Amino acid sequence: MKRNTFLYFLISLTFIFGNFSSDNGIRLVLTSNVNGETDPCGWKKKPMGGLARKSTIIKDLKSEGHDVIVADAGNLFFKKDKLSNGITIDHAKATANIIVDCFNIIGCDVFSPGSHDFAGGFDFMQQLQKKSDFPYISANIFSSSGERLYDPYVIIEKQGKKIGFIGLSSVFLNEQLTVKDPFKILKDLINEVESKTDMIILLFNASEKDLNRLKTKDYDIDFVVRSRSNLPPAVSKDGGSASIPIYSIGMRGKYVFEFDINIGDNESQFLDVMFLESKLEKSEKFLSSYNIDYEESIDLDFEFKDDPKTLNQIKKKLKERDDLVSVLNNKINYFSFRKYSLDKQIKDDIKILNVIENEKKKMVDLFGPLPDPHKGHNHK
């Protein structure tokens, strides 16, 4: 009787690679593209997002015994580079203040501003910064006179390991600012941070053009978290095995990303083991369809002598499987990744919900009824 070789693979995978949870107990929780949204989106079928749900997820992740770092990659306060779409300036600025209040309660550790965050003007951005209990970082956003506005990076130490966060933005137009070419600054900055840290994470408010430029560079960045994207959340296509892993967290504050990190040294490349494990599983599933597993040795050239196309596919998958097994068995620096969708199954944090509701009541008293924040866009 034919055995279920794929089931055998799934069982044996645990024994081959073990548990991928962080040995150091370092957990990174990442957000971006909140886009000035405090509440779930207006799609009746599946309302997603909201700061109260975000807080619940982050609280849960903090309660599991890890040392947690919460970081935001930008475009936090506003929807666009200029205030528009029926949202009055007063309402939009008041909402930005609510977001700061909520992020102070949630416990953010670092924030890298994006182009949208300056929509209320530079002076207003300074007011938000003074009110924030977390640092703002950016390596290439300067005042119009050329004065550096923020520290270019911050180093956070957890479990005896030092993690460097670099803030960066693609060039955008703002008459109150000078935004320099990020690639004229980044390489020297990486060299500076690398000598002080065990891991480097780039928080990048990146255009598609700059994201593609980054993929061609041989920079010592362990992974990139991107904002300035109107696309669904996306993860690296290679898990770090070939280039810098890049993660985009979606839009309108609908998602939270979690990374459990193991740092073995400050030299080896970081691998997304969940991605690589998934890729290995797919390879093994293909092989199991031809009853090929780890236990048995098969003369493939004989078995498939009349089907050279399939023979070639099997040999490619065998090599892919063996390469992945080798990479995972010899991993030194690695992390496991998980995406959380902030749907209605996530309960609201009552404290955050009360802050939002109370501040919005004040907003109505001061500025009149709130405009519909969801008017003019499609949730489908």
Characterise the protein shown here.
The chain has 380 residues and is of the alpha/beta class. The chain has 2 domains: 18-268 and 332-367, Purple Acid Phosphatase, chain A, domain 2 (4-Layer Sandwich); 275-329, no CATH class. The protein is built from 10 helices and 13 strands. The strands form 3 sheets. Strands 3-2-1-11-13-12 form a 6-stranded mixed beta sheet. A 5-stranded mixed beta sheet has the order 5-6-8-9-10, with helices on one face. Helix 2 (51-62) links the parallel strand 1 (26-31) and strand 2 (67-72). Helix 1 (5-17) packs antiparallel against helix 7, helix 2 packs parallel to helix 3 and helix 7 runs antiparallel to helix 9. Mean pLDDT is 83; it is low at 1-23 and 376-380.
Fourth-level CATH superfamily of the largest domain:
Metallo-dependent phosphatases
- Helical content class: 25-40%
Low-confidence residue ranges:
1-23, 376-380
Shape field: globular
Would you identify the CATH architecture of the largest domain?
Answer: 4-Layer Sandwich
CATH class of the largest domain: Alpha Beta
Question: Which structural class do you get from the secondary structure elements?
Answer: alpha/beta
Report the sheet with the most strands, covering strand number, pairing sense and barrel closure: 6 strands, mixed
Quick one: how many beta strands? Answer: 13
What average pLDDT do the residues reach? Answer: 83
Radius of gyration: 23 Å
> Number of helix segments?
10
**Widest β-sheet, arrangement of strands:** 3-2-1-11-13-12
